Amino acid sequence: MDIEFADAPDRSRYELRAGDQLVGFIDYRLSRDVIDLVHTEVPDEFGGQGHAATLAGRALADARERGLRVVASCPYVAAYVKKHPEHTDLVVS
Fold first, then answer.
1. Residue 23: exposed, middle, or buried by beta-carbon count in 10 A (0-12, 13-18, 19+)?
2. If we measure between CA atoms, which residue out of 26, 76, 16 comes closest to residue 46?
3. Burial status of residue 58 (CB atoms within 10 A of its CB: 0-12, 13-18, 19 or more)
């Protein structure tokens, strides 16, 4: 399965897609130089395959590339940052 990560700013979310299928997404709120990662969701049929971690990692990498600070309102993203401290410098409380 070829997975593609993309920002979908018109829907205020990052998405993972396999062709036309939505594999998962992270909703966000963008305000100037801060992105609040609000909610991560992966449909049951794609669960347990690491897609949420891919979303979190790629969203944080995108924030870094764009010079954005991150609010991790999503519990999954907050837990991901704790497990991957290399992203801690991005997070604001």
1. buried
2. 16
3. middle
Domains of the chain: 4-90 (3.40.630.30)
pTM above 0.85, yes or no: yes
Residue 93: predicted pLDDT: 74
Structure tokens, 36: 């609040």
pLDDT block averages, 10 residues each, the chain of length 93: 92 96 97 97 94 97 97 97 96 88
Q: d(Cα 1, Cα 57) in Å, to the nearest integer?
A: 19
| Residue 75, CB-side half-sphere exposure with 13 Å CA sphere | 0
Q: What are phi and psi of 46, to 5 degrees?
A: -110, 5
Q: What is the pLDDT of residue 70?
A: 98
* Pair 52, 60: CB distance under 8 Å: no
